[in-house]
């Protein structure tokens, strides 16, 4: 049996079926691979076969792939999968799990292959996976297990054969140190994100100059800085600006919403709470007064809770890093990947502050609902990342300094 590397939460994850508060069969495009579609057409039960084919739409030839050949139609009235009955899948009940499409059989699992090792984590758009992954105060750890080969594989890469993929040779060195940085609780999480961003810039510059063989030395230099109180260990190295942070992230959120990427009901609840919380400032507030109010809400509700629960966002970022096969990528620079993670972290934090203002408190349940529903509402859409990065590019803010302004938390006195 092959070796599979799991985050430990995956060892206990099980779908909770109709007990789930937000079924994955609701308001999500559900692709069907070609082999499964053809299997449905050939079923001996002709009546059920006809229903299956009738309730699926084969994609246009230009968009059709073997793993995404058709999509299941959603009920026009409810937005649910037409095969969802009493919170359970009628295809699985009637034909068994082996007859599910690859996506339905594997979700929320995401798998990548590195050399001979498979890596399987979970998409945190699943509420149960999000709870297991994020609510562990000890932080995320990883375990090798002999298990069956995953049903679907995302990225495949080798670290043993020279290729045009940046960082392949030093994949494990970079991956291990990146996780180590994000889990170093000697620093605030926003500080850790910026430390990782600085590392990404240094690695990008080294590879651009054809000096990829210097990567181990760069990693050691950064480790020495963190251990010895070097430049990146100092909070003052990274600039802050609460006014810029709130103004840009709020505008970015409104832009994403206006694009009507999706309409997950649970996310809309979070969004309404964010708007209600911010509107408590009053219609007559100037922009400066609104930012000051936002800072007060952060200090009164968000900061006290996160002083004890920052591990939730730490686990979120580590899971994102692991599931995206960081630092593997055929196109993007490492800094772009870290920049994207940082902006999403900033967006989530801003919304939580507004939600906390609405309720005058913050809870773990509120964070879980926001994170899983935000991912489901936005990140399941293929255009989301492109739109977000293009908007940042249009604002000329895709730099290390600008990321610091979006991520770093300014001192409480500066917000007053």
Show unreliable segments.
412-416
Structural class: alpha+beta
Rg from Cα: 23 Å
Indicate the percent of residues in helices.
Answer: 40-55%
Mean pLDDT value: 89
Main sheet: strands, sense, barrel: 5 strands, mixed
Report the total helices. Answer: 17
Overall description:
- The chain is 52% helix and 9% strand.
- It is of the alpha+beta class and 416 residues long.
- Strand 5 and strand 6 form a beta hairpin.
- Helix 5 packs across helix 14 (364-379) and helix 11 crosses helix 13.
- Mean pLDDT is 89; it is low at 412-416.
Brief digest:
By secondary structure, the protein is α+β, with helices and mostly antiparallel strands. The protein is built from 17 helices and ten strands.
SSE layout and pairing:
Blueprint: E1 3-7, E2 30-32, H1 34-41, H2 46-54, E3 56-58, E4 70-72, E5 84-85, E6 88-89, H3 90-95, H4 102-106, E7 109-114, E8 117-122, H5 127-134, E9 142-146, E10 156-157, H6 171-182, H7 189-208, H8 215-228, H9 242-258, H10 265-279, H11 287-309, H12 311-323, H13 334-359, H14 364-379, H15 384-394, H16 400-407, H17 412-415
Parallel strand pairs: 1-8, 7-10
Antiparallel strand pairs: 1-9, 2-4, 3-4, 5-6, 7-8
Helix pairs in contact: 5-14, 6-12, 7-8, 7-13, 7-16, 9-11, 9-13, 10-13, 10-14, 11-13, 13-14, 13-16
Features:
17 helices, alpha+beta, 416 residues
